[in-house]
Backbone:
């Protein structure tokens, strides 16, 4: 089974009818998301004309302060959150040009790992029954690995299969969330501050796991973070976000070692993770 996951034969390869490998996994053009304040009626642009392109197997970071619009962007870009304007292509398909059924199929190619792992898991389900439910929804797609093998992939003991979320540590629960995402063999993994809710002692391990998952499956990744150490561990390219706009984009090394934008410089100085250091 490990063979399937080796580099060069991504788990996503060849799946999904009509999805060639060279098409960007995600292409966002002029994305706008507005929120209307119910009491004042005032309109607030949480995302203001963002363009973004993530190629197959690429790992992109969206970095910015809290409130800059990162989560809103990620949800809208993957068709899971509201959008007020702009175009989104997921695996070469415009979200405006496809029907619900196709959209449902495409969404399966995108899996999201959230900040709060306990909040993402159903508290009434053991790990095993949660996985069983996922498998029931997508039999063919999920048949590539058994539960014990899957947990092994995220370095958890199969003993945890019968535990409920409250019996898992934050790090274990996040590994379960990553396993659940992995099970679906996505073409894009969106990770929204995946380590911010975890004890510092396990953050590095979970990041290492995400990097490994990314390398072994060939899935593209959209990593959202306010923490440079996170970006450094996992991403190739970075998009710096401020007040709903992307103010600077480029390879991580360039953006973080010679930022062109003043705001990027300020952000770097203020960010956890401190100055950019090249990946080992
Ligand atoms: N449903 C909503 N209604 C109104 N304002 C919202 C809503 N969701 C987010 N916002 C606002 O949009 C801005 C961006 O939020 P968010 O995308 O969560 O930022 P980030 O993830 O970068 O911290 C924030 O100012 C937030 O208060
Ligand atoms: Mg957020």
Residues:
């Amino acid at each position: 089974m490990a063979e399937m996951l080796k580099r060069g034969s991504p788990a996503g390869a060849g799946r999904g009818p009509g999805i060639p490998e060279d098409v960007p996994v995600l292409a966002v053009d002029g994305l706008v998301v507005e929120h209307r304040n119910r009491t004042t009626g005032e309109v607030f642009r949480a995302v203001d004309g963002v363009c973004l392109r993530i190629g197959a197997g690429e790992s992109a970071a969206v970095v910015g302060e809290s409130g800059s619009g990162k989560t809103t962007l990620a949800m809208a870009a993957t068709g899971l959150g509201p959008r007020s304007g702009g175009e989104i292509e997921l695996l070469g398909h415009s979200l405006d040009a496809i029907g619900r059924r196709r959209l449902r199929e495409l969404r399966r190619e995108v899996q999201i790992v959230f900040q709060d792992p306990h909040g993402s898991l159903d508290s009434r389900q053991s790990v095993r029954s949660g996985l069983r439910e996922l498998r029931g929804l997508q039999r063919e797609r999920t048949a590539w690995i058994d539960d014990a093998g899957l947990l092994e992939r995220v370095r958890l003991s199969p003993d945890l299969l019968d535990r409920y979320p409250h019996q898992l540590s934050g790090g274990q629960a996040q590994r379960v969330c990553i396993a659940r995402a992995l099970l679906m063999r996505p073409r894009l993994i969106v990770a929204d501050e995946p380590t911010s809710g975890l004890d510092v002692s396990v953050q590095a391990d979970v990041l290492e796991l995400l990097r490994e998952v990314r390398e072994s499956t060939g899935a593209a990744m959209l990593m959202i973070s306010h923490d440079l150490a996170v970006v450094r561990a996992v991403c190739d390219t970075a998009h710096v976000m401020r007040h709903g706009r992307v103010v600077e984009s480029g390879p991580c090394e360039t953006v973080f070692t010679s930022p062109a934008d003043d705001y990027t410089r300020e952000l770097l100085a203020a960010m956890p993770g401190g100055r950019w250091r090249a990946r080992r």
